From TrEMBL:
Pfam families: Ribosomal_S9 (PF00380). Keywords: Ribonucleoprotein, Ribosomal protein. This is Small ribosomal subunit protein uS9. The gene is rpsI. GO terms for cellular component: cytosolic small ribosomal subunit.
Length: 128
């Protein structure tokens, strides 16, 4: 099997995922998964699509992550892995969609408006 690639995005984070057959090693930006994401919750989030399909030990995954914070990066990696697994085997799509891993979360930060301190916050109103 050749290398299959996919892109996952969440908030400002972009994950380029490369999946190949292997022993279950996940490398993110040339660092091990548990080194890049010390939090076990975020490690779990990244591995969710693999655990759903029971394929955690079948593939080696290399991920290039940039932008965003650690939560957004973990969820971008999850989407990228799910998309790559569907490219490998299209029958897995229904199982991954049922868990919600195939849906790109469209929520992003709202832009700041001129004449306001933040996107929705207003400067204090003074009647006189």
């Amino acid at each position: 099997m050749e290398v299959v690639n996919a892109i996952g995005r969440r908030k400002a984070a972009v994950a380029r995922v490369f999946v190949s057959e292997g022993t279950g090693k996940i490398v993110i930006n040339k660092r091990e998964l548990d080194n890049y994401f010390p939090s076990t919750i975020l490690q779990y989030v990244v591995k969710q699509p693999l655990n759903t399909l029971g394929a955690a030990e079948k593939y080696d995954i290399k991920i290039n992550l940039n932008g965003g914070g650690y939560k957004g990066q973990a969820e971008a990696a999850r989407l990228g892995i799910a998309r790559a697994l569907v490219k490998i085997n299209a029958e897995d799509k229904a199982a991954l969609r049922a868990e919600g891993f195939m849906t790109r979360d469209p929520r992003v930060v709202e832009r700041k408006k001129p004449g306001q301190p933040k996107a929705r916050k207003r400067f204090q109103f003074s009647k006189r």
